[in-house]
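[09:14] KT: can someone run the structure on this one? pasting the chain below
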Amino acid sequence: MPQIRRVTAVVGGLVVSLTLVVTGCGRSGPATGPDPTATASTSSADERGDATEALAAAIGKAQEQPARVRFIMSGRSGGTTEAHAETDPENQRIKIESYFEEDGSTVMITMILLEQDFYLMNDSADQAGVWFHTERANLPPGGSFDTMARGDVIGAAGLIRGVTAAEWTGDNVIAGTVDLTRWSTVALPDLGELGDLGELGDAIRAVPFTAALDGQRRLVDLSLGDEQQTPEVPTIWLRLGNFGRAETIEAPTYGEIVPMPEAMVATLAE
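[09:31] RB: done, structure tokens below
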């Protein structure tokens, strides 16, 4: 089930990027400007505290309310994967729609994680309109979905382990580097592009990032990787917004709901 494996990697990438936080140098997403409040100034870094601690706090604040997330990953082969997510941290609900090209066609896979249930639909070929369902408790332990199900919606627990350097570069902007080898194999999946981490050498140990915060010190915009500095590593761009106003996440109200095969459940851990 290669499409399911790929979308699992997308979710893993979403967790990784949300956890590592970045924007600015080598932005890989659309050419949109940063949040108006995320501009540079001459403010003293001492007034803002330690950059790494502020980064961790900003990710935490971004999880306090429902939010909307846009995620784009550009791989070494030139392919692009995009995902839109709605998050509801209080109820630990998530809805993710991911899009990628396969054999000249756009594939869309939708996932809904609720308190007790997990639904997945592959909107292509004969599977269109069919929701595969399993109980949330059946999600493979340690996988990206399991991380979300246990309440760490954006994987913030791994932040400090990955960031090797961070500094303030503006009032609400933090830049630095992250060592991706510090992540577990679950937190750092293949992503469809990374391949063998050993082949990436030192590049994987010093991936640049920049993070933009809003006026309430929440993470709002990020990029990970730089096509010029680290061409071996896929670039990831992410934006969070619509805090407190995200749409309600509910069980599917259309299509056919069928039990998820055990083989499909197993791929969610890969």
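[09:33] KT: thanks! The chain has one domain: 2-267.
[09:34] RB: yep, looked fine to me
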